[in-house]
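Lab notebook page, bench 4
Experiment: in silico fold of construct C2
Operator: M.H.
Input chain length: 264 residues
Purpose: comparison with the prior construct
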Amino acid sequence: MLQRLITALVLAITTTVLVICTNMQFSSSSDAFTQLSTKTTQLTSLSPSPLSPPSLPTTSPKAHPLPPTLAQWQDRTNSGDYFSQVTPTQLGYLVWSQFPVKVYVQSPPSANNQAEIWINDVLQAVHEWSTYLPLIVVDKPEVADISILRKAPALQISRDNKILRARSAQTTYEFYISPNNLLSHRFTILLSPSQIGHYLTAAARHELGHALGIWGHSPLQSDALYFSQVQNPPPISSRDVNTLKRVYEQPTSLGWPLPKDNRR
């Protein structure tokens, strides 16, 4: 029963990127990825799904050793971070402890030029983040820690039955117990197949930042995890990496064995 409870648990973050049009006005109010407000708006807030049970079996939270790439990272510009904007889950921070993190990028059954461009744009974001955390691209979604799917998020309906603006990106995670009884998590990222170019790479870069552990947004436009899309998307910044490093220094229950009385 415990296994079913954990496997069924799905906590979701919906990070919204509005469909890019040639005449788009680039402002934080019209094309935000998402807002951190808990108010009901056209954009979705960072909050657990109603499917969350009231309690979960946990281990005593402990910090994992830093991966060498982050341990060696030094910001010589003292740019600071936005760690205060990162929200831990019921099980702690969303830290990966088994490396390399396995990333699956969906390929269409029949390849075409647009699909190849889409895949290459997404792989560019994976390559950028692999500088700071060990990542490997895998061919099978069932073995992946992070699955990136070429699929548009479903339309949302407001409380007054109005269709909200289309989203082009969505990231969700779930907890589960691994075969070796580790409390684990995995992510699914949806990216619209109609979006390509540097806006798609920016969306993939942003969503991967969430999936790698930055469960929040930056207030500065110069960061990849800025809450709103901008006309000239920035690369991964020193502040992004500083924030990621601080996340990985935090204690978490994820990646540690469950106590014996909670094991299957």
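Observations: The helical segments are 2-8, 68-71, 113-129, 198-211, 238-248. Confidence is low (pLDDT under 50) at residues 1-54.
Next step: discuss at group meeting.
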